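Q: What would this chain look like folded?
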Amino acid sequence: MSLSKEQEALYRKILEEAKEQLEKIDEKIEQEIQKTRETLARLQESKKGFQQVYEGAAKILGIPVEIEVASEEESPKEKNPGPKRNNQASSKNNQRSS
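A: My prediction, written as C-alpha cells:
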C-alpha cells in the first residue's frame, strides 16, 4: 500500500508529535523518580534520628531494644542482633557505674 504525499505528511506529523510526547513523559517520569528518591532519603534520615532517640532512651532505662535496626531491614539475609547485645552490655556498664 502506497501513501499519498498528504498521507505521508500526516503520518510524519503524528510520528513527530508522538515522539515529543514520549520525551515529555520520560522527563516527567525522571522528575517523579527524583522526587521519590528525595522523599525516601528524608524519611530514612528521620528514621535514623528516631532510632537513635529510641535506642538512647532504652539505654538510659536499661531495657532491651524491641525495634529492629534499619541495617537489618536493608539486608534481611543478615540477622544482626548487635544492638540488643550492645544494650545488654551497656546495661551492665550502667550497673557498674551506678
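The chain has one domain: 5-97.
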